[in-house]
Amino acid sequence: MGTDEEYANIFALANEDAEDARAWLSAAFIAQRGEGSEYALTSEQQEDIREVLSLDWWQSAVADGADDGHAAHGIRLGNLLPAAVRAASAFPLGGVVLAMYLRNLVNEAWELNWDHSLIRAAVNAAVDTADSLAPDGAEAVAWDLLRFMNQEFDVETALLTGDLRAVVLVTAEAVARIAAVRQSAGDLPAHPGRRRLIAETRFEHRYYRAIHDIAVATSDLLTRRSTPADVDLARITTLIDRGGFRPNDASELRGHLASLQAVHDAAAQPWLHVDEGRMRIVYGFGILRPGADELSADHDAVRLLADAGEKRGRLGPLRVAKVLRRLTLSDVWQGSDSLGRRYRGSTFQLEDMLLAVPGTDAEPLRIRTRVQLSELGNHAVLFDVDLVDAPAFEVARIVNLATPVFGDLTEIPQALHLHPRAAPGTHLSRLSDVTAAILDDLRVLLQPGLDPSGDAHDAPADPISARSGSFGVHVTIERASRDVTGVRTSLLSAREIAGLWGAQPLLHPLPAGASGVADWAMYDVDAVHRFELLHLNDELLAANSNVTLLASFRSPDYAVSEIESFLTFAHSMHGMYESWQVRVRDHAERISELLTDVERQLAAADASNADDDYATQREVTDQLGELIRVIERAELELQSFVQSKHAIMLFIEAPAIVSSPALRVDLDTVLASNRYDLLREGFERAVRDVLGSRLQPLLDVCHRRLGRILDDRQAERERRTERVERVLGVILAVIGISGIASLLQEGLGLRGGITWWFVVAILTIAVATGVVMLVMSRRAGSRHHQRHGARR
Question: Is the pLDDT of residue 149 over 60?
């Protein structure tokens, strides 16, 4: 059978080159087919499997995205991999080599994407088939090692939640699972792949045990179950530095260790404890309709959409609890302008969601949900959570709910369970996915509202515009304490919050992904940007790209709520401006296509001129003229759209939108804190880029070229008219007055009525010819005057 050294390279380890394994498997499949084995792959199957078992294919599949192609790719893997597993298991070493090669490949693909659906599908399609073949020995260990990747995915999911309870539980499960596989590998008798299997299981066991130890130590420090003296930080550091980990694994472990180090060093510092507060997550979106008109321009359309949603009974996975024909706003928004515009709309109140920790007595976190449809166009899906007696780490994990890369909770239901209040058996993945499902249902409701008489080019492919990475979080703190080694004292000033450890997730933008078991503890908050408000006393307003903190302990709740409504308004602006940008981009793409057609027609016109093909020239000229008219109409539509948006922007920035000038000052401050000026500048820059593009110069060229073509055509008509005139002139000259007189005198030998009828006929022909020549001359002159007048 050979020594371990002879076969070592065909047993691929993770994060190492696997070309030897790939070549060995390919040759073995070909040899198996030559032997006529009943399990052999056909040449077509082998070619397909060779494609899907390549990193190039995985890079392409991941680029398609979970929504675009993962389901189809998963079906393909489910059809191909079982055949490959059966074929490989039928020849010596084949099952072990294939299992380790698949693990190597899936690890590579894993680095390309946070989404686990496709790589889980590949792993499970292979190991489920292998289980049906009842493998033993090294094959059983190799397939178990591949199946362990499901636990690895679970650990990443738990880390992405930012919830240390979930990380501790899931890493404990992973450690127990890989420990059993490592033990099985160590118990194997002599086998060419034994040494590599032992090495791989040892790597994984030590890696996940280190993460588990770090997570437990960090959790114990944050919950005051231990003190820095109890944490053997030096031992964990030495384990990572001298543990012989792969470079990738070592770098990740150092990130987790940095989290522990940060919490360890802060143990004696004053910590933030939120006694009373609330958090709102805002997912803004825009609604696009055909032409320049939008839902925001049609107040009745907002109400009709609300009626349709109420009849539907649910949006996404949540029941519609109530529909309000108004926004839940205070009277600070009762301002209006001379046109009667006001910040108003309708609200869908949806059922609550609960985030539970299975197996514990912890009270589930209640998440209130509603959808705001605004007549201004700043629509939003809102999630509200109360903060009561919440330590810093609890606030951090609640804030983390907003990120679109929050872990998919359907993968770790044993650790965290998100579900509608009335359906505890339902498993929801994350808030961003709930938002996506709500918007999908709104798309369905919007379809009947699209104007069927509108130009098909004007109707956007997607009536709703929303970016998954565009969200806002604002946290309001009304009472807070300073926690020093477990002893709490109430804060007297909200401005003290920024100086307390644990305020980091409220003062730092939420990143995409996780770099440690408590990476929020490492956030840099030295450059916090604060803003001053008129209507709150001793307040703290701090903002960054996606998180805003508002706190005031000396202001009435109604005043704080008014500023909160300003914050929601400001965060929702992002969705509205995104939809406007989409409309401008759609217009730019459409104009680009039309200009390509224009250039093609100009080339055709040049060719027809060269061939002196009058019929083709006329057809090309007509098509070119129609294209120019379409472009000019599109240009006018964009101008109309931009003007309507400028009207909305002017109203947003006008004193009339709120009920007093002083409130206008605070609204301006809140808008500035959320970088409203960048939103406006971005939109206006996009408009300038489109309107100031090569469009107008090219239209001028088209008009000049079209004018020359029409001039050439008119010149040709005039030449033909001139030739006809000459011929008729010759005829008349030949006949002449003397000819007519001769006819009268001589009658060409004819007598009586015949002679006079003949004379009348000749005179009629002469008069008609003159009339025709006069009409042709006047028409030619009129066309020439109109064309040149228009061009002037």
Answer: yes
Contacts of 442 (CB under 8 A, 6+ apart): 287, 305, 309, 315, 371, 464
Distance CA 427, CA 420 (A): 8
Q: How far apart are CA 325 and CA 375, in angstroms?
A: 11
Distances from the Cα of 263 to the Cα of 171, 234, 259, 389, angstroms? 20, 15, 6, 20
Enter the tokens of residue 452: 């069927």
- Nearby residues of 675 by Cβ (< 8 Å), 6 or more positions away: 545
Q: How much is the pLDDT for 586?
A: 84
Please name the helix (run of DSSP H) or strand (run of DSSP E) that holds residue 113, with its range, or none.
Answer: none
State the DSSP H helix or E strand holding residue 344, giving kind and residue range, or none if neither: none
**Short-list 314, 319, 575, 578, CA closest to 442:** 314
H-helix or E-strand spanning residue 478: strand 472-484
First to last CA, the chain: 92
pLDDT digits (tens, 9 = 90+) for 72-126: 888 888 889 999 999 999 999 999 999 999 999 999 989 887 789 899 999 999 9
386-390, 536-540, 747-751: which has the minimum mean pLDDT? 747-751
Length of the chain: 792
Both structure tokens of 694: 């090569």
Looking at residue 691, its pLDDT comes to 72
- Residue 479 in contact with residue 390, Cβ under 8 Å? no
DSSP secondary-structure letter at 375?
Answer: T
Whole-angstrom distance, CA of residue 210 vs CA of residue 679:
45
In whole angstroms, give the CA distance from residue 412 to residue 152: 11
Torsion of CA 226, 229, 232, 234, to 10 degrees: 140
Residue 213, token pair as written in the block: 């130890």
Nearest to 167 by CA among 123, 118, 210, 226: 210
Whole-structure pTM value: 0.84
DSSP category for residue 509: P
Answer yes or no: is pLDDT of 771 > 80: no
Q: Give the residues across from 533 on adjacent strands.
A: none
Beta-ladder partners of 315: 318
Work out the pLDDT band at 677, boundaries 50, 70, 90.
very high
